[in-house]
Amino acid sequence: MSTPQLLMIEDDARLAQMVGEYLTQSGFGFAHALDGASGLELLQQRSPDLVILDLMLPDTDGLEVCRRIRALPGSQAKVSVLMLTAKGDPMDRIIGLEIGADDYLPKPFEPRELLARIRAVLRRRGETPSETEGPAVMHFGSLDIDRNARSVTVAGEPADLTSYQFDLLVAMAERAGRVLTRDQIMEAVRGRELEAFDRSIDVHMGRIRAAIEVDAKNPKRILTVRGVGYVFAKQQD
């Protein structure tokens, strides 16, 4: 198995050195860029498995860098992104998730928590279905979910989802017709527990709907059950 490669885009050189030493000792390849422009250049040169992206950068903010990553051609646009945000600023976290970050971690953080988050994101990205999980391709009307290719199409057109959003969609599709709470959905993909008043699951659901619904404001595939959670419709067009 090849060594997972990480790229950290962070203007605090001392922090990046500390994180790099810790992650290297934990079995990862590590590269570092001090600003967004050089980070994007390194990403295209090295094609890392995951980007650790600071929100505050000297040349541009991390949200704009994330947008540019998602606009890159080919598979590089699908690289996992873990965003570092200012503690106590939920709006930045919500916006980051909306534009395609897979997870976030508030500063200051413990290196062990960063490591756990990285492993969780990469595990979700690299998981393959077992025989007990059902068919490799699930069909719901014009919606096709291919587990092996980790791709989603609607009427033959690709739907743009992050790795984490793909896993959320698969978890719901496997339980089509069942009303699931937010905690049950998160638990199904072995994600972190929800923080109090954390809206991240709703943000992800909004992104998934935007990708797979004909009209995201009038969803027919993922329905909200007020006061409970969500249900993935069994019968779809």
From TrEMBL:
It comes from the Bacteria. It holds the Pfam family Trans_reg_C. Residues 5-122 form the Response regulatory domain. The keyword DNA-binding applies. Residues 135-234 bind DNA. Coiled coil: none annotated. Keywords: DNA-binding, Phosphoprotein, Transcription, Transcription regulation, Two-component regulatory system. The modification 4-aspartylphosphate is found at D54. The keyword DNA-binding applies. Residues 135-234 form the OmpR/PhoB-type domain. This is Response regulator transcription factor.
